[in-house]
Amino acid sequence: MAFWTQLGLLLWKNFTYRRRQTFQLLIEVAWPLFIFFILISVRLSYPPYEQHECHFPNKAMPSAGTLPWIQGIICNANNPCFRYPTPGESPGIVGNFNASIVSRLFSDAKRLLLYSQQDTSMKDVQKVLGKLRKLGNSSG
């Protein structure tokens, strides 16, 4: 059977079915129109407002490394909107969190752990602990 013959028969069958089911036809036509008018009324009752261009701080993906990913979550928890481009929007920059508290905490811990791994003498470990106590007393 040719394509146009099949299409004509299908349209004739559909028309015949729709003519016999008038209530169903009215519902199928009225329901999308009803939803469309609801959308129009919502749009008219809440007109759009002008807002400045919005730049969000960059957030590293987990593939960039665990530390940049955690810093992106912690440092941008409130997700602020800025008028001007942020430093992290430049191509090739993974994160702009080098001066954050989390970054300093991890770098200090890394330096302390590397220092204690290189020197195994008990005397040097006691020096480090004594300096940590002094630091804790001076800041507290």
Automatic annotation (TrEMBL):
It comes from the Eukaryota. Keywords: Membrane, Transmembrane, Transmembrane helix. The chain crosses the membrane at residues 25-46. This is ABCA1 protein.
